[in-house]
Design goal:
The complex is a heterodimer. Chain A is mainly α. Chain A has 2 domains: about 35 residues; about 210 residues, MetI-like fold (Orthogonal Bundle), CATH 1.10.3720. Helices cover about 70% and strands about 0% of the residues of chain A. Chain A is elongated, with a radius of gyration of 24 Å. The two termini of chain A are about 40 Å apart. Chain B is of the alpha/beta class. Chain B folds into 2 domains: about 160 residues, P-loop containing nucleotide triphosphate hydrolases (Rossmann fold); about 60 residues, no CATH class. The radius of gyration of chain B is 18 Å and the shape is globular. The chains are: A mainly alpha, B alpha/beta.
């Protein structure tokens, strides 16, 4: 015969009705306004604003005869980017992506796992919490020179820095998610004889998923920041987008500098949009 | 004399919760028998231990003392093959659509979905065509109907219902009560139905068990001899209204008035 489920044993049955059904704390539609822009007028206005800024800047820079080393002209920047992307930038993009993705994968996996484990034990959570807070608030870029000194000129120092930056972000948000226990839903699963593992897989995890996705998104933004910033501080031999920024700015090659900025911006926006769709697909029930 | 064993037997059920401010006695020396195929309503004010009793019946809570027997064997944990629980509000999983919610118990039990049974129940409860809807797209009544289908699809002998229609408006509640009685008379299940609504209790039940405010004790048991099938019109008849008033007094006085009269 099965035993009485332990997590339900000695609390007065209560029902957290907020979690069920209605809108949760996360509104995915707020992530990007592009999807909510319905009419042609709205979309047209967004494109028009871009055109005004882009060409307006170009015109102002031409009229004022601003030299490139003071401010690059947008058209020249785009032309540089198009001409030299495959020759120069693709390599550095790959270096940064490699550091970012490796570190992010390690950091977020460890962060998610730790979050799932420590939320099972309130004591462990209380002990670990201050250290996670320190890790979240300390800029991990600060460790890159130190790691560089210890580990040489490969990509590992940056991979570790990215992991240290992204991991705690994934962890605190996921932990918030895993703490959202809904007693009534656990009772439901238990009444059908669910095991603790089934409760985790079919109740706790889906309930936590929206917050986990938020954690992955915030973590990815911090990870990219750390990858690029770390390269600016102390890049590997292979370079990377951050290293290029320092290099071009020190030589006042502002067209190339602008082109690298565009690539980094595109990278950031892509990550954002990716998580928007991930959120829509896997956590739309909360939006 | 032939002794027929009751389907459910509750013997001296007592439950004490340990809270930060001390012990809370939710249920005290509560005993009743429920026969097979009977529909018993447990009526009491909020916080009188009705939900505690139901969770103990479903094996979700252990009693502090006393015991519960289902078909003669003590309930010491969830009995998913024999008991189906219907919770307050619908308690659907918001990340699953209606169909996936109904299939949830099959997944937990690692059994193949009884598609024919599920389809028949969906048809019976008027949920056909909403299988792919998410819970928040459904009305409160439809959500609760889905949760009834979810429980009935498992074909348990006993249904435990914890104020299932408490959050619904009066019209939907009547409609749900009629649906429940129809399903009950067709299936012959044993139902324990917890409510704080007096006329709902009388309308549904063979017997109404009135509980006292905390700690929940048995105040009085009413046999309801209203003819079946019951209609909403019956609730407007003088006899029904008298019974409601009488029961209201019992709830308020915790059964003392009735005992004095007797």
């Amino acid at each position: 015969m099965t035993r009485v489920p332990s997590e339900l044993r000695d609390e007065i049955p209560s029902f957290d009705t907020k979690v069920a059904g209605d809108r949760g704390p996360i509104d995915w539609t707020g992530l990007t306004s592009f999807r909510t822009a319905k009419s042609a007028l709205e979309i047209g206005s967004i494109v028009a604003l871009f055109a005004v800024v882009f060409f307006g800047l170009e015109l102002v820079l031409r009229w004022t005869n601003t030299p490139t080393y003071v401010f690059p002209k947008p058209i020249a920047v785009v032309r540089t980017l198009a001409n030299e992307f495959t020759g120069v930038y693709a390599h550095h993009l790959w270096v940064t992506m490699y550091e970012f993705l490796s570190g992010y994968a390690i950091g977020s996996a460890v962060g998610l796992l730790l979050a799932a484990l420590i939320t099972q034990k309130p004591f462990a959570e209380k002990v670990i919490a201050p250290y996670v807070l320190i890790m979240v608030t300390t800029p991990m870029i600060a460790f890159v020179p130190f790691l560089r000194l210890k580990m040489g000129f490969g990509s590992w120092p940056l991979i570790i820095a990215v992991a240290l930056a992204a991991g705690p972000m994934v962890m605190i948000n996921s932990a918030t998610g895993f703490r959202r226990t809904d007693l009534a839903k656990i009772a439901l699963a238990r009444s059908y004889g669910a095991s603790t593992l089934q409760i985790f897989r079919k109740i706790r995890f889906p309930l936590a998923l929206p917050m986990i996705i938020v954690g992955f998104m915030v973590g990815s933004i911090f990870g990219l920041l750390t990858a690029v910033g770390g390269e600016m501080v102390a890049a590997s031999e292979a370079g990377g987008l951050g290293e290029r920024l320092v290099y071009y700015s020190s030589l006042a090659r502002m067209d190339e500098f602008g082109a690298v900025i565009l690539i980094i911006a595109a990278l950031g926006v892509s990550i954002y949009v990716l998580f928007y769709f991930v959120g829509k697909r896997w956590a739309s029930w909360e939006a | 004399m032939v002794l027929i064993e009751p389907k459910l037997r509750i013997e001296h059920a007592t439950k004490t919760y340990a809270t930060k401010t001390g012990h809370v006695r939710a249920l005290e020396d509560f005993s009743i028998d429920v026969d097979e195929g009977e529909l018993v309503c447990i009526l009491g004010p909020s916080g009188c231990g009705k939900t505690t009793l139901l969770w103990a019946l479903s094996g979700l809570h252990a009693l502090t003392s006393g015991r519960i027997l289902l078909d003669g064997t003590p309930v010491e944990g969830p009995r998913p093959a024999e008991i189906g629980v219907i919770f307050q509000e619908a308690n659907l999983l918001p990340w699953r659509n209606l169909r996936q919610n109904i299939e949830f118990p099959f997944e937990i039990k690692k059994r193949r979905v009884d598609t024919a049974r599920v389809d028949a129940l969906l048809h019976d409860t008027g949920l056909e065509g909403f299988e792919r809807s998410m819970p928040r797209e459904l009305s409160g009544g439809m959500q609760q109907r889905a949760s009834i289908v979810r429980a009935l699809a498992q074909n348990p002998g006993v249904l435990l219902m914890d104020e299932p229609f408490g959050a619904l408006d009066a019209f939907t509640r009547d409609e749900m009560n009629l649906l429940l009685m129809r399903l009950w008379s067709e299936s012959g299940k044993t139902i324990v139905f917890v409510t704080h609504n007096i006329s709902e209790a009388i309308f549904l039940a063979d017997r109404v068990v009135v509980m006292t405010p905390r700690p929940g004790r048995l105040a009085h048991v009413y046999e309801i001899d209203l003819a079946r099938p019951r209609t909403v019109e019956m609730t407007f008849e003088p006899g029904f209204i008298e019974l409601v008033q009488d029961m209201k007094r019992t709830v308020e006085t915790g059964g003392r008035a009735v005992l004095e009269v007797e």
